[in-house]
Amino acid sequence: MIDPELRQLYQEVILDHGRSPRNCGKPDQFTCEAQGNNPMCGDRLTVYIDLADDGSIREAAFEGRGCAISMASASMMTEMLKGKSRAEAEALFRSFQALCTSDAAEAEDGADVDALERLQVLAGVRAFPVRVKCATLPWHTMQAAVSGQGGQEVTTEL
Predict the structure, then answer these.
(1) In the chain, how many domains are there?
(2) For the segment 108-125, what is each residue's pLDDT rounded down to a tens digit?
């Protein structure tokens, strides 16, 4: 059971990112992009990634509309991806996916443990399977963008 004060803090962080998302908007420069759609909730977004020559993520941004959880997740994701290699981004993606779906989730090798700790605010979605799709949509969309699958829309469905 989550401490009520901690739950309140988590809600405040989600609302802050949901109301004032960071890195929201189409950047002037990006090397890959992908579109995501969650038809159950109506979340639709595009994730933009600018990869450096060495494959690291120079910039990450998104635009779209959705519920507070998907917008907060996209906002937090874009903040955490900057400077990461593709491998680090993918490890963080898999660890975040586990965080949202399993009580016994652990950070995968190569995942940024500090970033994963900050993402704990979204872990409560595991109690609501429909909301898992909201939280993970930006991450699945980012995964499609950096793996070169941006031409296909990512759809999260139950």
Answers:
(1) 1
(2) 777 788 888 888 888 888
